[in-house]
């Protein structure tokens, strides 16, 4: 039994290290010529719109309706988390998504989201029609992709 646990732990470490090498970072976005979006671009993209938010780490996808005042009225899960994420130390150690009543505001080139207790600032980076979000608390790791609903 001990041997099986040791093998499992070693395999988990190998998978974790392999994942760490493929993470998308802010530096890699910039090297691929992604440009930071302005506040005006972000407003046009988000306010009074329905967008999809993909969590790149867990593969979960959410559909979010954002009103003109920045309140998020509808958030529904389109796709659940990948079951393999349950053993990911990185996933469980990062800050969770805000849930329940979340308000969004745009200040300068940043999006500020809060649930009244926690506050996150995010920046969006765009190239062609691909948009990624980087939260201030994620140490320049890109964890989210924004998909414009057509």
H-E order: HHEHEEEHEEEEE
Mean pLDDT: 80
Count of structural domains = 1
Q: Note the overall shape.
A: globular
Total number of β-strand segments? 9
SS content category: alpha+beta
Poorly predicted segments? 16-21
Write out key terms for the chains shown.
single chain, 150 residues, alpha+beta, 9-stranded antiparallel beta sheet, 4 helices
Structural account:
- With 150 residues, the chain is an alpha+beta fold.
- It has four helices and nine strands; from the N terminus they run H-H-E-H-E-E-E-H-E-E-E-E-E.
- Strands 1, 2, 3, 4, 5, 6, 7, 8 and 9 form a nine-stranded antiparallel beta sheet that branches.
- About 4% of the residues have low confidence.
- Strand 8 and strand 9 form a beta hairpin.
- The longest helix has 20 residues.
- The chain has one domain.
- The chain starts with a helix and ends with a strand.
- It is globular.
Outline:
This protein is an alpha+beta fold and 150 residues long. Helix content is 26%, strand content 35%. It has one domain.
Secondary structure blueprint with pairings:
Elements: H1 2-21, H2 26-31, E1 35-36, H3 39-46, E2 49-55, E3 61-66, E4 72-79, H4 89-93, E5 103-107, E6 110-114, E7 119-127, E8 130-135, E9 144-148
Antiparallel strand pairs: 1-7, 2-3, 2-9, 3-4, 5-6, 6-7, 7-8, 8-9
């Amino acid at each position: 039994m001990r041997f099986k646990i040791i093998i499992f732990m070693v395999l988990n470490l190998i998978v974790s290290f392999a994942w760490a090498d493929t993470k998308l970072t802010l530096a890699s976005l910039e090297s691929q010529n992604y440009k930071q979006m302005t506040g005006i671009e972000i407003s046009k993209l988000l306010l009074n719109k329905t967008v999809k938010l993909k969590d790149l780490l867990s593969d979960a996808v959410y559909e979010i309706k954002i009103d003109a005042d920045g309140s998020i009225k509808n958030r529904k899960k389109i796709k659940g988390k990948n079951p393999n994420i349950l053993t990911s130390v990185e996933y469980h150690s990062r800050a969770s998504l805000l849930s329940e009543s979340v308000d969004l505001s745009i200040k300068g080139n940043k999006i500020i989201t809060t649930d009244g207790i926690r506050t996150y600032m995010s920046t969006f980076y765009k190239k062609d029609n691909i948009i990624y979000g980087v939260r201030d608390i994620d140490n320049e790791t890109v964890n989210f992709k924004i998909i414009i609903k057509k």
